[in-house]
Design a protein that fits this description.
globular, 77% helix, mainly alpha, 301 residues
Amino acid sequence: MLLTRITESWYKRLLSSKVKRKSENLVLTVAIISYLVHLCLIFLVNQGILPIESKFFKNPIAAIYTPFSFILIYEVYLLIYYLPKSISYYIGKQYEIITLIVIRRIFKDISHLELTSDWFTNQDDLQFTFDVATALLLFLAIYFFYKNIHKRSSSEKEDMKVEDQKLLRFINLKKTIAVLLVPILVILALFTAIEWIFAACHDYQNGVLAFKNINSIFYDEFFSILIIVDVLLLLMSFFLSDQFHKIIRNSGFVISTILIKVSFSVDGLINDSLLIGSILFGLGVLLIHNMYEKENIEPKM
């Protein structure tokens, strides 16, 4: 079909292994350059050469925020890259992105720390403590998530009927979605860059409101798109299998993505709790799904 050929052509141009390697090198180069530029700007501001009134250009630690933003964009690209290959790894990449967002937020929190005896009464210090604990828990949960992703054995792969039209249509659908997500990623990334520069230079409300918005823009909108994609994949998966445990697993992944999306609308301890809960829910669903697979529990007709 013409549509399939067009999809395959653009898929190779945007999401092949070769393009992935080039994108990685480009992003790392931009991240390093942006970090050095940010450090230079901080030096010029502190020397009184540049008249910029912003906390973002006062503390050198804040410069780490900039390269992490580019690395996060690349992580989103990897999420799209894995979408046609494995739903589980695609969900895992969502969890990685959230963890990196928390890590990036920790670097912002460090620049606001006040080392006093009233640690647990200072809001910024408390948020730093919550974020550090959250990052560790998310990191551990992702480890168990990847560890429990079922990898097909060689015999299982041989048994799979690749010629099956339903399976081919599902794979082509995922490739089409992935190709369409790439330009959306680029547009949202450009919008984010403009918002980031605007917020960093104007420092609304001493930087609190500005940074709060920066942590949510792009990812708030992008995860809204991912919810739509996940629901579409869930519905299409019904054509491949009507097994209860697979339906629950895919539905659970959708719920996990929704919880991540909801977390962007709140901050503080509630935000951290939602993030931890979203990944633990996804991990729990995966573990129970694997129990069904291991025991081969299916209705007997």
